Automatic annotation (TrEMBL):
SUPFAM superfamilies: ACT-like, HD-domain/PDEase-like, Nucleotidyltransferase, TGS-like. GO terms for biological process: guanosine tetraphosphate metabolic process; nucleobase-containing small molecule interconversion; response to starvation. Residues 66-165 form the HD domain. Keywords: Hydrolase. It comes from the Bacteria. The lineage of its organism: Bacteria, Pseudomonadati, Pseudomonadota, Betaproteobacteria, Rhodocyclales. Coiled coil: none annotated. Gene3D superfamilies: 3.10.20.30, 3.30.70.260, Beta Polymerase, domain 2, Hypothetical protein af1432. This is Guanosine-3',5'-bis(Diphosphate) 3'-pyrophosphohydrolase. It comes from Parazoarcus communis SWub3 = DSM 12120. Residues 655-729 form the ACT domain. GO terms for molecular function: GTP diphosphokinase activity; guanosine-3',5'-bis(diphosphate) 3'-diphosphatase activity. InterPro entries: ACT-like_dom_sf, ACT_dom, Beta-grasp_dom_sf, HD/PDEase_dom, HD_domain, NT_sf, RelA/Spo_fam, RelA/SpoT_AH_RIS. CDD domains: ACT_RelA-SpoT (cd04876), HDc (cd00077), NT_Rel-Spo_like (cd05399), TGS_RSH (cd01668).
């Protein structure tokens, strides 16, 4: 709703020029000397000269030399009594961006901490908020906080923003509106959450002025007009409060204040009020010494003026999330004018005004420091939702290094939408967060414009672009690195559907194989045995058992043993103890599918491998460069990334081909060379003699590639051996 005061003739209104603008470094130095050690002041001065040199010849849009900006920012930071490292960072905060001075150079001259702070600030500068959605603003705020792992980065950033807002006049109107909006949506709420009340208010006022210049002017004019009428009332109230409190034995400081334009404007908007209906544009603040005095003062005030029912709030007993504490009450003053009063102790006042910065402000006073620190610590903790901060309060504040959102990471889509993912998430998680179809069709990704592997870990502020292909399918290997439940569930769901049919056929085949050592085939298992088997397990169809086996949920050897027992019981065959079959090969990325090593290329651990799901045969694992694979490459979707599970203990078959000179006893010498390396020979095949040479095809059992290499080295040492090689496909070396 538009305020109904638009009829008042608009008049230009300028807030009084900020003294900060006229500050030069000498004034800053005076401020610093008030609380920093002389050697620290010297270091800050060195940073000033360095920054002035770096920005030499640069000007702000206002025409001022550029260095005036970092000095002003440092001056705001100095008002909070931040340490020398933060001051140095404030002075250098734009040099990396604007003058291409490296982080390493800053670290070398001014120390690692200041360099980290400047780097953190430069990173924040690179990301820009565009979206109008409210939920996005909250995510963006969190992203900024998460990127600034050091609280000082946020404080300097707020000072930077404050100075830019104070000097926004020289910008074009469109840019002013954009910056004002961003300030209102992002930076003012951050200041509020950190309890930096003064900055919060000033950022809001300045944003309001630049976002709605007309409304701002009209409203400020109306307030000035109203001031005249109400001054008398306010004066009366102030005088009588100041008189009454000492009578109750309370020594207090009473401050009268005009409410902020923006909060009046918000109130008009939210409650659909005209300006004349917004009565409480004045407020009072009563500052006392201790908590009992707060309640005593409240009693004194309520004895003077009637309180407005329902307006009393006790933020002493229940502080706000950002640590704010006060008693709030609204009194009905003379002529029925409502007057809001806040009552608090001096300490609470400092926290309310300066928030997180307040613990730097009172370093001298050891006792106050501890109390303030504890308070700051406790509300920071609730604010940051930290599970538990290790160490003492003092230590926590000394290091101020905090991870504000340790479990989360914030990234952008190419269109600037922000996604909030668990820490450690990958582009695949992002793809599924965008849409299931995007996840299922994703083949590659760009992070900040560069092609990156899908398993890359995303970092705060990354811009992620997913490349999809119409016929692509999810890869089971993704399951080894996705973080989100959604991605995991969708990949599994896809795999399950795709495998259902294949699993039944595969399971049937595997079970048939497993029955062989029992001297049985599937066809020989009677219906009676099957029924008994299914009934005991509460399964309805044979097919379900086959599917379970195919999906790796049941072991074929166990099903075979039970079926054979059921069959034996029926036919009265004695139960014989069967040899224990070899365990399954563990291959990563196979996710419960039956795995077979391809016969054509006989991969062994250590070989680069690739898997293919073949109808009715499960996952078949080939060498990466297997010629059979090359032939099948066309059928894309079926290829899966697999890798060897470490710690595999069984032996693998592999065939080598050895060309030797014909000589007596040569086979024996080759065989003993192999045996010496602790390796079994499974079979030997000797090609017909080719003149003076003989070709031996030996199938060996090895642990892995290293083992094979040792065996081959051993064989090569046999004098008659001319050539040796591994057979990788179709018996050809
Ligand atoms: Mn700046």
């Amino acid at each position: 709703m538009e305020p109904d005061i638009a009829t008042a003739p608009p008049q230009p209104f300028r807030p009084p020029p900020s003294s900060v603008l006229s500050l030069d470094f000498e004034q800053l130095k005076t401020k610093l000397s008030g609380y920093l050690k002389p050697e620290d002041v010297g270091r800050v001065e060195a940073a000033y000269h360095f920054s002035a040199d770096a920005h030499e010849g640069q000007f702000r849009i206002s025409g001022d030399p550029y260095i005036s900006h970092p000095v002003a920012v440092a001056s705001i930071v100095a008002d909070w009594h931040l340490d020398a490292q933060a001051l140095i960072a404030a002075l250098l905060h734009d040099v990396m961006e604007d003058t291409h001075i490296s982080k390493a150079e800053i670290a070398e001259r001014f120390g690692k901490t200041s360099a980290e702070l400047v780097d953190g600030l430069s990173k924040l500068d690179k990301i820009e908020f565009r979206s109008q959605e409210e939920a996005q603003a909250e995510n963006f705020r969190k992203m900024l906080l998460a990127m600034a792992s050091d609280l000082r980065v946020i404080l300097i950033k707020l000072a930077d923003r404050l100075h830019n807002m104070r000097t926004l006049d020289s910008m074009r109107p469109a840019k002013r509106r954009r910056i004002a909006n961003e300030t209102l949506e992002i930076y003012a709420p951050i200041a509020n959450r950190l309890g930096l009340n003064n900055i919060y208010r000033e950022l809001q006022e300045l944003s309001f002025e630049h976002k709605y210049p007309m409304r701002f002017r009209v409203l400020s004019k109306a307030i000035r007009a109203a001031r005249g009428n109400r001054r008398e009332v306010v004066g009366k109230v102030l005088a009588s409060i100041e008189e009454r409190l000492p009578q109750w034995g309370i020594s207090a400081e009473v401050q009268g204040r005009e409410k902020h334009l923006y909060s009046i404007y918000r109130k008009m908007l939210e409650k659909h009020l005209s300006f004349s209906q917004v009565l409480d544009i004045y407020g009072f603040r009563v500052i006392v010494h201790d908590v009992p005095a707060c309640y005593l003062a409240l009693g004194a005030l309520h004895s003077m003026y009637k309180p407005v029912p329902g307006k009393f709030k006790d933020y002493l007993a229940i502080p706000r999330a950002n640590g704010y504490q006060s008693l709030h009450t609204t009194l009905i003053g003379p002529f029925g004018t409502p007057v809001e009063v806040q009552i608090r102790t001096r300490e609470m006042h400092h926290i309310a005004e300066s928030g997180v910065a307040s613990h730097w402000l009172y370093k001298e006073d050891e006792k106050t420091l501890t109390e303030l620190q504890q308070k700051t610590h406790s509300w920071l903790q609730s604010l940051l939702e930290l599970q538990s901060a290790s160490g003492e309060a003092t230590e926590f504040l000394e290091h101020v290094k905090i991870d504000l959102f340790p479990g989360e990471v914030y990234v952008f889509s190419p269109k600037g939408k922000i996604f909030n993912l668990p820490r450690g998430s990958t582009p695949v998680d992002f793809a599924y967060a965008v849409h299931t179809d995007v996840g299922n069709r994703c083949v590659a990704c760009r992070i900040n414009g560069d092609l990156m592997p899908l398993r890359s870990e995303l970092r705060n502020g990354d811009q992620v672009e997913i490349i999809t292909a119409a016929h692509a399918n999810p890869n089971p290997a993704w399951l080894s690195y996705v973080r989100t439940g959604k991605a995991r569930a969708q990949i599994r769901h896809f795999m399950k559907n795709a495998q259902q049919e294949e699993s039944v056929a595969l399971g049937e085949r595997l079970l048939n194989q497993a029955l062989r050592p029992h001297g049985l085939t599937l066809g020989q298992i009677s219906n009676f045995a099957w029924e008994r088997f299914l009934r005991d397990r509460g399964v309805r169809h044979k097919k379900d058992i086959f599917a379970d086996i195919g999906l790796g949920k049941r072991l074929p050897v166990i099903v075979a043993r039970r079926l054979s027992q059921a069959q034996d019981q029926e036919s009265g065959r004695p139960n014989v103890i069967k040899p224990k079959p070899a365990g399954a090969i563990q291959i990563r990325g196979s996710e419960g599918i039956a795995v077979q090593l391809a016969r054509c290329c006989q991969p062994i651990p250590g070989d680069p491998i690739i898997g293919t799901i073949r109808k009715g045969q499960g996952l078949e694992v080939h060498l990466h460069d297997c010629p059979v694979v090359a032939k099948l490459r066309g059928d894309r979707g079926r290829w899966v990334d697999v890798e060897w599970e470490p710690g595999e203990e069984r032996l693998f078959d592999v065939t080598i081909r050895v060309l030797t000179k014909n000589a007596r006893g040569v086979l024996a010498r080759v065989a003993s060379a192999i045996a010496e390396e602790d390796c079994n020979i499974q079979s030997v095949h000797m090609d017909s003699e080719q003149g003076a040479y003989t070709a031996l095809n030996l199938t060996l059992q090895v642990h892995d590639r290293m083992h094979l290499a040792k065996v081959m080295r051993g064989v090569r040492r046999v004098p008659e051996v001319v050539r040796i090689g591994r057979v990788k496909a179709d018996g050809r070396a």
